[in-house]
Design a protein that fits this description.
Shape of chain B: globular
Order of helices and strands of chain B: EEEEEEEEEEEE
Helix content of chain A: under 10%
Largest interface: A-B, 22 and 22 residues
Number of strands of chain B: 12
Oligomer: heterodimer
Strand content of chain B: over 45%
Helix content of chain B: under 10%
Distance between the termini of chain B: 41 Å
Chain lengths: 118, 113
């Protein structure tokens, strides 16, 4: 199983600033995913990050607002740019592990970054 | 598009009570279905899953059956414990494996001794 370290675990930021969230995995993975969980709501996929190519964003999310880096197979960053109070959420990193023989896929999640924008 | 609707919480039960958390979904094709759990202070972790109709996923005494005719994947446990207190998320993936999960809103469960 994959172990994911995400940091910071929480932060309080001023509006108009940017925050970069780091996600480190203890094994090499092809795809990494970034989710957002707004207060009282479900998790929503922001983008899929592949090593060596640009991230693929879901509807409603754009690269200028949420730039993503994926420099290698164990690491990714998500930046929340020009923050406003509406960006206050929990941001989670996720990877897919194919398990033994590639037949038993499972998604693993970091503990999340709780962001508050004031 | 695909969506997941979960029973609204919070849910509070006494120890040894029977638990049901309802989950229904809307999807094209044949999605895989999951239940994830988030214990206090911890990250999301997979509780159980089912990849085709009539499959039953089970783990830690929890069960859920993939019902295509009712588009449901209700989570059940016969006798809950205080340690089951957590937030439970129903999710689906319309791709092979666990990619691009669509989540329900989560149900907070509290078990009182």
């Amino acid at each position: 199983s994959a172990v994911i370290s995400q940091k910071p675990s929480r932060d309080i930021c001023q509006r108009g600033t940017s925050l970069t969230i780091q996600c480190q995995v203890d094994s090499q993975v092809t795809m990494m995913f970034w989710y957002r969980q707004q207060p009282g709501q479900s998790l929503t996929l922001i983008a899929t990050a592949n090593q060596g190519s640009e991230a693929t964003y879901e509807s409603g999310f754009v690269i200028d607002k949420f730039p993503i880096s994926r420099p290698n197979l164990t690491f990714s960053t998500l930046t929340v740019s020009n923050m406003s109070p509406e960006d206050s959420s929990i941001y989670l990193c996720s990877v897919e592990d194919f398990g033994t023989g590639g037949m038993n896929t499972e998604a693993f999640f970091g503990q999340g970054t709780r962001l508050t924008v004031v | 598009g695909n969506s997941v609707t979960q029973m609204e919480g919070p849910v509070t039960l006494s120890e040894e009570a029977f638990l049901t958390i309802n989950c229904t979904y809307t999807a094209t094709g044949y999605p895989s279905l999951f239940w994830y759990v988030q214990y206090p202070g911890e990250g999301l972790q997979l509780l159980l899953k089912a990849t085709k109709a009539d499959d039953k996923g089970s783990n830690k005494g929890f069960e859920a059956t993939y019902r295509k005719e009712t588009t449901s994947f209700h989570l059940e446990k016969g006798s809950v414990q205080v340690s089951d207190s957590a937030v439970y998320f129903c999710a689906l993936s319309d791709q092979q494996g666990a990619q691009k999960l669509v989540f329900g809103q989560g149900t907070r469960l509290t078990i009182n001794p």
